[in-house]
Amino acid sequence: MAKQQKAYVPPLTVSHPALLLEGRDMRFRDTLYLLVLVLGQLLDCREAFGKRAGLTGSQFAVLFGVAYSQGEAGVTIRALAHHVHMADTHVTTEVGRMARRGLLEKRPNAADGRSVLVTLSGAGRALVEELAPYIRSVNDSLFEGIGAEDLERMRAILGRLAGNNAAVQAALKG
User: In terms of residue numbers, what domain contains 132?
Assistant: First the structure.
């Protein structure tokens, strides 16, 4: 007769008591898997939005980032990169590509000669206007049943995770 083995119980991957349920981290693990799933789905949406416009997902993010942050004068590359949470160098490259395609305009920043200000061109504005109804319908479906408080709580949690991640990335490299 085969000896019956005891079920394997892996060691905890988190020790914060608030993240444990009955001393186990299964709920925490499930939440991480769900977060990764949703992140992938959001990236798929961004890629689909870009594809619909003949852009990459990153270019789509830059286009709408400019639309939402240009104001009257335009937006600097640094401020745009901060807004869309991308590296300055990546945003610089994408802005250059999109300016060559006639979707964005760059001009010297009179307040700081070392930088440029980026705005939508007429074609860029028309593309944003054309895409908005499609994006709105996708977002309305995606965020069905999620209220303002839910969104703010999610924003706060994701902000804390992003802030904590800076120290974690440094430790992972060390």
Answer: 22-138
Q: What is the pLDDT of residues 1-49, one digit of tens each?
A: 677 889 999 999 999 999 999 999 999 999 999 999 999 999 999 999 9
Tokens 């009257």, located at residue: 72
In the chain, the number of structural domains is 1
Q: Within 10 Å of residue 94's Cβ, how many Cβ atoms? A: 25
Q: With beta carbons less than 8 A apart as the criterion, state whether 19 and 28 touch.
A: yes
Torsion sign over Cα 117, 83, 139, 50: positive
Alpha-carbon separation of residue 53 from 63, 65, 98 (angstroms):
10, 15, 12
Q: pTM of the full predicted structure?
A: 0.89
What average pLDDT does the structure give for the chain?
95
Q: What is the CATH number of the domain that holds 108?
A: 1.10.10.10
The reply to whether 59 falls in a domain is: yes
